[in-house]
Write a structure and sequence with these properties.
The structure holds 3 protein chains of 3 kinds. By secondary structure, chain A is mainly α. Chain A contains 13 helices and no strands. Chain C has 2 domains: about 40-155 and about 310-380, D-Maltodextrin-Binding Protein, domain 2 (3-Layer(aba) Sandwich), CATH 3.40.190.10; about 155-310 and about 390-430, D-Maltodextrin-Binding Protein, domain 2 (3-Layer(aba) Sandwich), CATH 3.40.190. In chain C, helix 10 crosses helix 11 and helix 14 (about 320-335) crosses helix 15 (about 340-350).
């Protein structure tokens, strides 16, 4: 067999495996969707129907009555977007400092930041709650947003990226009369767009799905976010009503998917540019 | 009086002001993150550390200082070691497979062909979803009576499994779900790493008559070492902290078969009300992960400079 | 895109964000609309699902009758979530006024924080006569009343009477003893379509396994703790109860191992003859079963005694200002009084545990129409429990572990497992004296 034909054969086999893999990977989503469109009796039918015989779109309407999912959705959107913007802003600033400015204690401080990534959040839960309470931010957007607005992960990611930008750019900017701030905004930022977008995506997804902190810091349904709402639904009488649970799971999964799909072009490129893998 | 030449003095002044400006700028830029992380993560963590030396349930007005006895207790506790073993089982079960599959997928999808973006999206999509939501979906799939997985098994003539209901199969069930969820994450990181390997290196091997495997062994794998290293570090840190899936799907059972260390910690804090003890566990965990990460960092550094 | 990014971080961009931030802050303010001389109290509860409106409705009625009191009633998750919230609340001094406390969720610890109001002076002699002491004891700590029972359930037997008829059992006869239970269950376990797979089971319990194990322990005359506060989990009575449980799975083969979470669906689908689950499940079961089969509710069997554990929650009051305490007590009395318990239990299916409530004419009529609900109301008289103990969490967890081991392994050494558990629990008790 010629080299080219052999190559083609190999690629075809790989393609088949990829298709099989994709099928397996997509199956849980498919099953989630399928169950979400079934009626209560159809869910427990044996042998189970892969495709709902009479798809019930009204499940998706009824879910809004089962629990205040509408309110949860709004809260999740507002909170996640705000945190994402804040995280990007604080990470850009700190990452620039850690990568380009020499100041005493820089390495130790960075290490301390990294250390915060390892601490299980159960440990910080109650003390953080006390602090938030003193600030009178319990059960409010402030309490949901502010404490989450900076993470070491974002700083780490962007710092790695900034490290790949040669020092000469800094010097050139200095000669051109740019202040540090100016250098950051006008020189670094435009270059960093892919990495920043990658961070924004990661931040959005992580915070959309964040469960523990919103659970602890909110007291009323008016302030709760979707993951907390879903968990309460699972525990309450929703437990056992698989069709509604699947609707909730679907609804929660859609926004991060949408965000990811629209911006995914930047994603791999963004990760690659951080040189985090060098 | 020491005579300083004007040039030297100018230089010293320049350095001094530059230095001061740097310090101000440095801390200034870091300030927002510092304040936030300091106040909401670092301070609580320090507070938790102090509590780990007490016997306290966070409710009673009296706090008994007990020194290191919480730490001693956990070192003697068979449940602690068991939950550590369970966690290790989880790590060893998930990380190698996820990384290997992620690498394979990345290599397969590092070309341009019709549908490559589709495949990349498909394999990454589980990463994007909420862990709790997916835990519920898999819980439903694993249902021993009505779950679809047992149905498939029966269709091909295999016996139905108890999945989460049996000590033997509970952890493998969780591992399977974890692999599904995170293969895409490793894949994307490997893709990024692969894209930074210059193409001409491959050509050199081809010219020498090397096939696909030779290419992989001599170029791809060694050059991916930093990526592999990074993924390993992140994977270990993340898997050590697993909690939501266990909480939603098994509650640590059956018979403690899935009681990973963070879940054990959670129970000690909120069911047994031994908050001081729970925090001691958390700090032991912290030291372990930190130590492991540091060790990997050292090893990684020497690997880098080969 | 680049332009957008740059615009965002330019000065006008940052001002916009600041403005957005301020709007968010304003949105976050929920100014409490308290009228003149009005007292506002906060009530944390753990009720979720279709029964919640009953509680909310009662609170609203209370507010109507007491215009000087405004009640902020919020759902806080399950009983464990409430405890977590209470923990955080104690640390931050941010506690509600009325709180729903799960009967096995930390009442001793919360009481010892000193923040709960001791309710002895608000409980009358009639109250004490009105509520079965086995039940009331569950909410006393250090001989002081720390909460009033409110949302109460016991396990009951949910019975598929149609199945009983099919296998030749009298459809309205409950299994009265353990032996009866085994006998009935054996008849009810069968392979209907001859494919080698058992399709219909005789007996199963819901999750919350420890609770159901308690019922067997109490029926056998055992207790969890002795008078000295030490655990007695390795006593003969407890061993026998666990052995019985194991026999159900391995010897008589009438209970499938470890699928407790799916047992409800099994029962509702008609494939389980006798199902032990909380009395709170009755309404939901009836709704899900519809007319698929004849569904009735029966008493738990007895061994030495007829005895049931109690489950659910009570209402406690946290200390605060005299006005708020007074308002919270007023709400407490409204909800847990004779009329309150009648309204609540009729609407939700939780137990009418007050004898005076059960004696009310409309409750009697209700029971006549709903014999299923009546079973639990009668059974609560046989409630047998230990008072809440600091080690309850450890006992619960430990027993669940033991049962899971026992169900998976027919040869499990039950006395050894229980001895080990007992020693462990007593170690905990000693440490936290």
């Amino acid at each position: 067999m010629t080299r080219k034909a052999e190559e083609k054969l190999f690629n075809s086999i790989v393609f088949v495996f990829l298709c099989l893999g994709a099928l397996i990977f997509l199956f849980p989503f498919f099953w989630m969707l399928s169950t979400s469109l079934k009626g209560a009796s159809e869910v427990l039918v044996y042998p189970p129907d892969l495709i709902p015989p009479a798809p019930r779109l009204q499940n998706y309407l009824e879910i809004w009555d089962k629990a205040p999912f509408g309110r949860y959705f709004i809260n999740s959107t507002v909170v996640t977007t705000a945190i994402m913007l804040g995280e990007v802003a604080t990470s850009i600033l700190a990452a620039y400092a850690f990568s380009k400015i020499r100041f005493p204690g820089r390495e130790k401080l960075f290490l301390a930041f990294l250390g915060t990534l390892i601490i299980p959040n159960i440990v910080t839960l109650v003390p953080a709650f006390v602090i938030v309470h003193r600030l009178k931010w319990i059960d409010s957007y402030m309490g949901l947003i502010i404490p989450e607005m900076a993470t070491a992960y974002g700083i780490f990611l962007l710092r790695q990226f900034f490290l790949t930008i040669p020092q000469e750019l800094d010097d050139a900017a200095a000669i051109d009369g740019f202040s540090r701030w100016g250098t950051l905004i006008r020189v670094y930022l435009p270059l960093a767009i892919p990495a920043v977008i990658a961070l924004a995506i990661i931040s959005f997804i992580n915070n959309w799905n964040n469960f523990f902190w919103p659970l602890v810091v909110t007291n009323s349904d008016a302030m709760r976010t979707l993951p907390v709402g879903l968990r309460f639904f699972v525990e309450g009488d929703g437990g056992g009503q698989w069709e509604y649970l699947m609707v909730a799971a679907t609804v929660i999964s859609i926004p991060p998917m949408v965000v990811f799909l629209t911006l995914q072009r930047f994603f791999v490129r963004g990760i690659a540019t951080t040189g985090i893998t060098k | 009086m020491i005579r300083i030449r004007p040039k030297t003095r100018a230089l010293m002044t320049f350095i001094a002001t530059r230095r001061v400006a740097d310090i101000v700028a440095g801390y200034g830029f870091v300030l927002p993150a510092l304040l936030l992380i300091g106040a909401f993560v670092f301070l609580p963590a320090v507070y938790g550390f102090l509590v780990s030396f007490t016997r306290w349930d966070m409710m009673s007005p009296t706090r008994t200082f007990v020194g290191l006895s919480n730490y001693a207790e956990l070192l003697e506790s068979s449940e602690f070691w068991r939950s550590l073993a369970v966690t290790m089982y989880y790590l060893v079960g998930t990380i190698p497979i996820t990384m290997a599959l992620g690498l394979a997928l990345a290599v397969a999808l590092n070309r341009q062909f019709r549908g490559v973006t589709f495949f990349r999206l498909v394999f990454y999509s589980p990463v994007v979803t909420s862990t709790v939501a997916m835990a519920v979906v898999w819980l439903w799939m694993y249902d021993p009576i009505n779950g679809i997985l047992n149905y498939f098994l029966l269709q091909v003539g295999l016996p139905p499994q108890k999945w989460l209901g049996s000590s033997a199969t509970a952890m493998p069930s969780l591992i399977a779900m974890d692999i599904w969820k995170y293969v895409g994450y490793d894949m994307v990181l490997y893709l990024a790493g692969l894209q930074s390997i210059p193409a001409d290196l491959y050509e050199a091997v081809e010219v020498d008559g090397g096939g696909r495997w030779a290419r992989f062994r001599s170029i791809t794998w060694p050059l991916l070492a930093p990526t592999t290293f990074f993924i390993l570090v992140i994977s270990i840190i993340n898997r050590f902290r697993v909690f939501a899936t266990v909480h939603t799907m098994t509650g640590g059972g059956p018979a403690g078969a899935t009681e990973v260390i963070v879940y054990f910690l959670y129970k000690q804090a909120f069911q047994y009300f031994k908050v001081g003890y729970a925090f001691a566990i958390a700090y032991v965990l912290f030291v372990m992960i930190f130590g492991m990460t540091l060790a990997q960092w050292r090893i990684g550094k020497s690997v880098h400079y080969q | 895109m680049r332009v957008f990014a740059r615009r965002c971080l330019s000065t006008p961009g940052r001002i916009t964000f600041a403005a957005l931030g301020m709007i968010l802050v304003l949105l976050s303010f929920q100014v409490p609309a308290s009228g003149q001389g009005q007292v506002t109290i906060a009530f944390w509860h753990a009720m979720d699902g279709p029964k919640t409106p009953v509680l909310i409705g009662m609170v609203r009625d209370f507010a109507k009758e007491n215009p000087a009191i405004k009640v902020d009633v919020t759902f806080q998750g399950d009983y464990t979530d409430v405890v977590r919230k209470v923990q955080a609340g104690i640390a931050a001094n941010a506690l509600p006024n009325l709180v729903m406390l799960g009967q096995r969720h930390g009442i001793p610890n919360i009481s010892d924080s000193g923040k709960l109001l001791v309710l002895d002076s608000y409980v009358t002699a009639e109250d004490r006569k009105d509520i079965s002491p086995g039940l009331f004891g569950r909410y006393t700590h250090d001989r002081k009343v720390m909460a009033i029972p409110f949302l109460i359930s016991t396990p009951v037997l949910h019975i598929n009477a149609s199945r009983f008829r099919e296998v030749g059992l009298a459809p309205d006869k409950d299994p009265a003893t353990w032996d009866d239970l085994v006998d009935y269950a054996k008849k009810l376990t069968r392979d209907v379509n001859g494919d080698g797979r058992i399709d219909q089971w005789g007996f199963h319990t819901h999750g919350d396994i420890a609770w159901h194990v308690f019922s067997f322990i109490y029926q056998n005359g055992g207790t969890l703790y002795g008078r000295d506060g030490q655990a007695t989990l390795d006593s003969r009575e407890v061993i026998e109860a666990i052995q019985f449980w194991s026999d159900l799975v391995h010897k008589h083969k009438v209970m499938p191992a470890l699928t407790h979470a799916g047992a409800s669906r099994l029962f509702v689908a008609g494939n389980l003859g006798i199902f032990q689950r909380s009395s709170a499940f009755v309404e939901g079961a009836a709704a899900q079963i519809g007319s698929r089969f004849d569904y009735r509710v029966g008493f738990l069997p007895k061994k030495r005694f007829l005895a049931v554990p109690s489950g659910g929650a009570g209402l406690g009051v946290f200390k605060s200002t005299p006005e708020k305490e007074k308002a919270a007590i007023a709400l407490l009395k409204y909800l847990t009084g004779t009329r309150g318990i009648a309204t609540f239990s009729k609407g939700t299916g939780y137990i009418t545990f007050r004898r005076s409530s059960a004696a009310l004419p409309d409750m009697q009529a209700f029971f006549a129409d709903n014999p299923r609900e009546h079973v639990a109301a009668q059974q609560i008289e046989y409630a047998r429990t230990n008072p809440p103990h600091r080690a309850d969490g450890a006992v619960w967890d430990g027993l669940e572990n033991v049962i899971e081991k026992v169900e998976t392994d027919a040869k499990a050494d039950i006395p050894a497992l229980l001895k080990e558990l007992n020693a462990r629990v007593n170690r905990e008790i000693a440490r936290y004296r």
